[in-house]
Amino acid sequence: MSQRDNPASEPTDFIRTLIRDDLVAGKNDGRVVTRFPPEPNGYLHIGHAKSICLNFGIAGEFPGAVCHLRFDDTNPSTEDPEYVESIQRDIRWLGFDWEERRFFASDYFEIFYRHAVYLIERGLAYVCSLSEEEIRAYRGTVTEAGRNSPDRDRPVAENLDLLERMRAGEFADGTYTVRAKIDMASANMKMRDPLLYRIRHVDHYRTGDAWPIYPMYDFAHCLSDEQEGITHSLCTLEFENNRDIYDWVLDHVQTTYRPVQIEFARLNISFTVLSKRKLLELVQGGYVEGWDDPRMPTLSGYRRRGYTPEAIRAFCDRIGVAKSNSTVDVAQLEHAIRDDLNPKVKRVLTVLDPLRVVIVNYPEEGEEALEAPYFPHDVPGDETRPLPFSRELWIERTDFAEDPPKGFHRLAPGREVRLRYAYFIRCEEVVKDPETGEVVELRCTYDPATRGGAAPDGRKVKGTIHWVSAHHAQGIEVRLYDRLFTIERPDLAEEDFKAYLNPHSLVVHDRAKAEPSLATAEPGERFQFERHGYFYLEPESTTDERRVFNRIVSLRDSWAKKTAAPQATERTSKEERKPPTAPAPPVERVWSDEQRAALERYRRAFGLPDGIAEVLTAEPIAGRLFERAIAAHDAPLPIANWIVNEALRVVKERGEEDLPFGGAEIGELVARIEDSTLSGRAAKEVFAAMAAGEGRPDAIIETKGLGQIADEGTLGKVVDEVLAAHPKEVAEYRAGKTALFGFFIGQVMQKTGGAANPALTRALLERALSPS
Predict the structure, then answer these.
(1) The whole model's pTM is what?
(2) In terms of C-beta density within 10 A (0-12 exposed, 13-18 middle, 19 or more buried), how is residue 167 classed?
(3) Amino acid 2: pLDDT
(4) Among residues 39, 281, 310, 570, which one is catalytic?
(5) How far apart are CA 471 and CA 665, in angstroms?
(6) φ, ψ (nearest 5 deg) of residue 193
(7) Is 344 part of the annotated catalytic residue set?
(8) 336 near 315, Cβ under 8 Å?
């Protein structure tokens, strides 16, 4: 059976594969400890959600694994308790909890300081008097080595004295810094004597004025991980070059644990900016209402707009985890919320821009109760709601055209349409305001024989419109939220990104009408307004006299796409604030038709996560390799992971013509992994040899002796030998010290040179260690 016929139930990506390999090898005594380390200088956004779901998700997937929440609060000039509270609130709303495992980098200030003293005492750090501009000038360029600071060889005693005086608050900001003494000629410019400490006479929100010096991120990050016993420190790709500093610091200070930094692709999402600096600029400039404005990509903004945590978690699962950066279409996030809400929210009729309709042949005082389903036919359940009908109705102004264009199938003079769940009506007369010429009322007739929306004589109508009984209607305010920007990548705009703000990102209808069932809606409840989208009764703005519904996401409406300009009756929010100074260009498409077809095929036919599918679509060579690889071995997801996370880097370095392997070889490699004859770690060694042009996978495996021992008899003897050699550990394990299981796996791996099949090793050990 192929993988797409039987997809794995657990997430598969290079990070989880690495963690599983570490567990099999007995690393970290079988512990898995991750951390989510936000800086409390802003509100969390959708990019943070990906990291939260990854770190906390891993903690929930592996037995005994945990995730820490740690606030990286080493820059007091931008941090605030408000952000600490908002971050905790957002993580809990997303569905995760850190229990007692909440930490602050500021808890370790004394520890960081002692490590700095240790480095100075061993001649590995020094106090530098260069200014920020001078440090930048001395650093050199990518092609030019840097120059040593004049203070680089300052005597240890003098460095220690200056450091102590820095801590005592004797010097002004910028007077001195503490720098690591590494290599001013390093190809990685981050390693050219990076800063460890700087002077900041700013009160810290937790430590007050106790510290006039604060550690840099690269110094505090790795030491915080070490202090907490983090095993897998997951960072986004922009920190890849910082990993050298991370490792250097841990190599040169006294440590108990040795965490490992692993980088993954950050989330870039179309029509959105995720830079905290730019989001803060929108807030402070009054372009949005605040961090929780429903148009903002912050978790608090999504929550206020009506997004569900389930939808955001599903979105993060769909896009997957990769090593190569790509941009995710914001439509994928919108799909996730529609998929989540569609089966569980009630349908109601609303009219946003009402136009009065009088049914002239309906009794003047008459009314009746029709019935309509709350849920679509494909959702289990037969719950219905009463729908009152009377002589006077409200319909959408956009559902009438006095001079209808071609393709318009709604109401027009002399034309018959269907009222949803009700009757056929025909427009007989149009009443206008004598001064403005605006249509104010339509006089129509109805056919009593069409109750329920079908004609007994079999005649058909092309249009169906929605309506609300005027006598029974509830007045509501409806806010239509849309994408905040009009171009796909506003974060890459050469000019001011605010020039591309969408002037119609919020349109308010404060005279909207709704069917009476909405009168009992509870704040925080969600609905589908038929034909308009999914809506949320906002608790923050709703009062007894005013009910405000936010549009969470729109429905697909082919006619609405033809109507580019907003109606004259719509009121655009924030006109009194700071509108864009340049006209907004038209919305750009993210993919061509051909690319969209390919993207859909990767998702539907092969079941690939959105992030992986996007890379294969955006990189044609990756797509070609994938097609050739699955022809050799039908395992789409593992193959796609290898191409995106490993092969693509080689392709970009060498080009397709000089590539020493093809898709078939990748398929063969994955086949060996899946039939348990090659471990994940050995597979990377094989792939490196393939990239070096050393041949096909099978030949490399045989030459290097990398194949796995998967024979139960052979491996069983090794397991018996390991247990016989460690009777004390066996007794302790059977007495309840189950963490030793990783130790036994490590011993088997060591004895076989890493060739033991992990799954078989685990099964044999479990059997041998179980009480007899």
Answers:
(1) 0.77
(2) middle
(3) 37
(4) 39
(5) 72
(6) 50, 65
(7) no
(8) yes
